[in-house]
Amino acid sequence: MLDATDLTLHYGSSQILHGVSIKAKVGEVTCVMGSNGVGKTSLLKILSGTHRNTAGHYFLDGIDMTGARPDKLAHAGVGYVPQGRFIFPMLTVRENLETGFCCLTIEEQFIPNEIYELFPALKTMLDRRGGDLSGGQQQQLAIARALIMRPKLLLLDEPTEGVQPNIISQIGEVIAYLRAQKKMAIILVEQYFEFAFGLADQIYAMTRGEVVYESRTATIDKEHLRQSVGV
C-alpha cells in the first residue's frame, strides 16, 4: 500500500529527516518508534500532505503521491489522526464525525454502525460538544472520524498520549480489529513501548531523523530495539 523512499525534510535551514524509507502493507501494523524529537511526527506530516518533503518519493498503492496536497491524499484514502487529536471543540460529537464525509460520495455519507461498535461511548455523546469530552474520549472521536473516511492507509500519531489506561486498552483492541479486517495499512507512531510492540508486525526505530533499526516483530531483538529507540 505504502512505499516511501529516501524522504528528506527541512524546516528552513534545519534538516529534520535524513533519507527515511518505510513500507506499510495492507492488513499489518507498521510501527515507528523513537524518543521525542527524532522526526516521527514530521514523517507522518509528509505522508498526510501537511508538510512537503524536500527530497525522496512516496507511492500509495503504486501511484506517486509525492508533494500531493492533504485533500488529494485524503481522497486517495489516507486517514490521519494527528498528535493532539485536533477535534473541533465547538462542534458536537455527531458533527465532528460528519466532517469525515468530505471525501465520500453522497451515498456513502452516513456513520456506519461499526463506529459505535468500536467506540460505544460515542453513541451516548452524539449531542455533546467535542470540547466537553475527556482526553481519552476525544482520542476515540479522532480515530472514529478518520475511520468514517474508509481509509486505505491509517496514520496514528501517539494515540495513547494523555489517555487513561482503560481507553489505551480499548484503542489497542480497535487497532488489532482493524488489522484483522485486512482492509487497510496502519502506521502507528508510538512511544509507549509495550503497547507498540504488542501490536506491530513491522517496526522502524528512528534516531535524529534517521531509521537506525528495522525488523519484523516476529524476529526482532526486543532489547536491541528498546536500546535503539531509547524509550
Summarize the structure.
It is built from 9 helices and 10 strands. With 231 residues, the chain is of the alpha/beta class.
Would you kindly provide a written description of the structure presented here, covering whatever features stand out?
The protein contains 9 helices and 10 strands. The protein has 231 residues and is of the alpha/beta class. The strands form 2 sheets. The chain has a 6-stranded mixed β-sheet, with helices on both faces. The model has no long low-confidence stretch (mean pLDDT 90).
Physical arrangement of strands within the biggest beta sheet: 6-7-8-3-9-10
Mean pLDDT, as a whole number?
A: 90
Shape descriptor reads globular
Gyration radius, in Å? 17 Å
- The percentage of residues in β strands lies in 25-35%
How many distinct beta strands?
A: 10
Count of discrete alpha- or pi-helical segments spanning 4 or more residues: 9
- Low-confidence segments, given as residue ranges, are none
Structural category: alpha/beta
Q: Encode the helix/strand succession as letters.
A: EEEHEEHEHHHHEHEHEEH
As a percent range, the share of helical residues equals 25-40%
What about the largest sheet?
A: 6 strands, mixed
* Distance from first to last alpha carbon: 29 Å
Main attributes?
alpha/beta; 231 residues; six-stranded mixed sheet
How are the SSEs ordered, and which strands pair?
Layout (H helix, E strand, L loop, with lengths): L1 E10 L2 E11 L4 E5 L6 H9 L6 E6 L2 E2 L5 H7 L1 E4 L11 H6 L14 H6 L1 H4 L11 H14 L4 E5 L7 H17 L3 E5 L3 H7 L2 E6 L2 E7 L5 H8 L2
Parallel strand pairs: 3-8, 3-9, 6-7, 7-8
Antiparallel strand pairs: 1-2, 1-4, 4-5, 9-10
